[in-house]
Amino acid sequence: METNLGELQDHRRVLRVRIRDGDADAFGELFDAYARSVYNHVYRLTGDWSAAEDMVSLTFLEAWRLRGRVEEEGGSLRPWLLGVATNVTRNARRAARRHAAAVARLPREQAVADFADEVAERVDDKEQLAVVTAALATLRRAEREVLALCVWSGLSYAAAAEALGVPVGTVRSRLSRARTKLAKHMEPPSGRGQMRDDRNTAVRPVREGNR
Q1: Residue 91 phi, psi (nearest 5)
Q2: Average pLDDT in the 41-67 region?
Q3: CA distance 88 to 95
Q4: Which residues, at least 6 apart from 148, have a Cβ–Cβ distance to it below 8 Å?
Q5: Helix-strand-coil split of the chain, %, nearest 5
Q6: pLDDT tens-digit profile of 66-125?
Q7: How does pLDDT run across 150-184, given as a tens digit for each residue?
Q8: Res. 133: pLDDT tops 60
């Protein structure tokens, strides 16, 4: 067991050095290992399949840009990547709000079509998604980010704090508030159909582990 742990630590150290040095093959390994985790995390923040797919690409582009900040010593790079994904999503939301505001100022005949219905049709169980979406809408952004990292992505308080750049105590308090709010707004999905699409696991509190 100690030998296996030592080998894992050595592998992580070598991977961190390779990534910091701009090794494309190392980034490919990083993508293969964590792209799904990044996708799930961003979907939980946005509730949009298409946006999540775009954010995965943007996250790894941003990770490449920030590769020089990766330290040689450390554990899994998953918390760091999820932190990058969180920041990328924040920036994308700000850009979307600015775009929406610009569109709102256009004459009515130039208004951009609303594709919300098209997105919703891609979800099998609309009723269950509506319950989840409504409950998550009661959370502040910071609370939702902590919930996504700790509950769905399975990060420890310390790893989530590292990803978000906040104290561990802040993570604990935000998560506590998020759980309290969700308890008030979420009803057990009794009698509702099971979600069939594998992607729908993204909206359920399944812990992904921390490799």
Answers
A1: -65, -40
A2: 89
A3: 11
A4: 41, 44, 45
A5: 70, 0, 30
A6: 999 998 888 899 999 999 999 999 887 777 666 566 656 655 544 444 444 444 444 444
A7: 887 888 889 889 888 899 999 999 988 888 888 77
A8: yes
Q: For 72, which DSSP code? A: S
Eight-state DSSP code of residue 149 = I
Q: Which amino acid is at 141?
A: R
Give the mean pLDDT of the chain: 76
Q: Determine the Cα–Cα distance for residues 62 and 79; give it in Å rounded to an integer.
A: 15
Half-sphere exposure of 78 (CA within 13 A, CB side): 24
C-alpha distances out from residue 113 to 51, 64, 99, 117, 206, Å: 17, 34, 13, 10, 35
Q: Which residue's entry shows tokens 């920036």? A: 91
Contact 42, 55 (CB under 8 A): yes
Taking residues 191-206, what's their average pLDDT? 40
Q: How far apart are the C-alpha atoms of 40 and 53, rounded to whole Å?
A: 9
Instruction: Give the C-alpha separation, 209 to 184, whole Å.
Output: 27
Burial-class residue 184 by CB neighbours within 10 Å (0-12, 13-18, 19+): exposed
Per the document, the length of the chain is: 211
Answer yes or no: is pLDDT of 3 > 70: no
Tokens representing 71 are 């330290």
